[in-house]
């Protein structure tokens, strides 16, 4: 039986800097964009003081940008909704920060509470609405940055891939 451990054979990877990947300054994968949204959501001091509520229209604020992506903060008073839409060529991560939002698609309706995330591909058609009696706040990461938001009629067919639940709270 050989008693040599991997560490004895290969050496400590942490001692070989050229084998370590340098951390990326900006996200580049879907998982990294989900992680970016989670880290922003967890840092309330970064966004909470910026939130405003507008009874006449949804309020939104571009929180940050990076190469090929942008991050938006939105508030929703009771009854406000996005209308049925897609995001053109952009993929996205929707994260509910406070309150509850309802996402409607051709296939389903689901309530998204604080901490819930939805990941979607280009062409995914949905509507987001605040159906509750309390305001809600959401964070949206788009990659590439949002350049269009085509609106759809209620009878429009879904064209994009089904989103993935990243977190259900």
What are the main properties of this structure?
169 residues; alpha+beta
What does this 3D model show about the protein?
The structure is a single chain. This protein has about 170 residues and is α+β, with helices and mostly antiparallel strands. About 15% of the residues lie in helices and about 30% in strands. The chain contains three helices and nine strands. The strands form two sheets. The chain has a six-stranded antiparallel sheet, with helices on one face. Strands 5-4-7 form a three-stranded antiparallel sheet, with no helix packed on it. A hairpin with a 2-residue loop joins strand 1 and strand 2. The radius of gyration is 20 Å and the shape is globular. It starts with 5 loop residues before the first helix and ends with a strand. About 5% of the residues have low confidence.
Question: How are the secondary structure elements laid out?
Answer:
Elements: H1 6-10, H2 30-42, H3 44-47, E1 59-66, E2 69-76, E3 91-98, E4 100-104, E5 109-113, E6 117-120, E7 127-129, E8 136-143, E9 164-167
Antiparallel strand pairs: 1-2, 2-8, 3-6, 3-8, 4-5, 4-7, 6-9
């Amino acid at each position: 039986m050989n008693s040599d451990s991997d560490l004895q054979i290969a050496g400590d990877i942490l001692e070989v800097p050229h084998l370590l990947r340098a951390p990326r300054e900006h996200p580049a994968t879907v998982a990294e964009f989900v992680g970016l949204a989670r880290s922003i959501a967890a840092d309330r001091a970064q966004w909470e003081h910026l939130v405003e509520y507008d009874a006449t229209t949804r309020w939104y604020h571009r929180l940050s940008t990076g190469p090929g992506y942008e991050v938006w903060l939105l508030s929703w008073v009771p009854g406000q909704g996005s209308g049925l839409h897609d995001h053109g060529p952009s993929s996205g991560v929707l994260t509910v920060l406070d309150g509850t939002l309802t996402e409607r698609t051709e296939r389903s309706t689901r309530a998204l509470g604080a901490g819930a995330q939805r990941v979607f591909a280009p062409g995914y058609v949905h509507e987001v609405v605040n159906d509750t009696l309390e305001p809600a706040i959401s964070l949206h990461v788009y990659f590439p940055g949002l350049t269009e938001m085509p609106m759809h009629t209620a009878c429009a067919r879904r064209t994009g891939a089904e989103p993935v639940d990243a977190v259900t709270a």
